[in-house]
Amino acid sequence: MNVFRFEFKQLIRSTLSWSLALGLVVIIFMSFYPVYYEQIAIMKPLFDNLPELLLKSLGVNVDTLFTGLGFYSFILMYIQLIAAMQAMMIGLGVVGKEVRLKMNDFILTKPMSRSSILIQKSLAIFSHLLITWIFLSGLSWVMLNSVETGPLNYQVFILFTLSTLLLQVMFASVGLLTAVLLRKLKSVVGVSMSVVFTLFVMNLMQAILDEPWLRYLSPFQWFEKSYIFYNSSFEWPMLAMCALISIGSCAGAYVVYIRKDIHAV
Question: What is the pLDDT of residues 122-135, one digit of tens each?
Fold first, then answer.
């Protein structure tokens, strides 16, 4: 699996950088939790007096904020934004770099089928996302256990971390599909930021406007933190939508890639 090994090695430095960035977010924010908890008598009235619109836009649930898992669910929105950016950039970059560097005709002259090339690239992408997720989940577990004052609900914690992985897989799949559809790709960062931040803004709009139909337009709303916290489960329609888009994007990328015309430079 030469393509897999090559792409895997190429992504190591990027994966380490993203993992460290995510780890710093977890460490820094979770280190603040003991301060919030110790000052609950002072802090909670302050949050209660803030406009509900502001709290919703920030992803703050005052009823859960002063528990370890509740505080983690607050920062999880921003963790998932970074993780989604990583996934989109990797999915778009690994498959799209031949388009960007005008090397499609070169790689396809190798004694290897198109399907094999795409499958190996996809395996490299999802392997690195899994590495990032394992590191992030392990560090989150350590930080939560170090600051949580009561028993930790491991079922809810596992669902929180799984929601991050599912979002990563979905954004990487969309990145794959986007990469094979584009004839020209000037900037992986530009396209990735445009897609991810547009969907994140839709998440903020839904929180502010409270329009149910807007939830279907933003993947960040598909794993609603308060619902998971109180019900210890995912919302099955939203989970099905995430799975459908992930599988559909991967299947679409495969079909397009093995059939598309490749123009020599």
Answer: 899 999 999 999 99
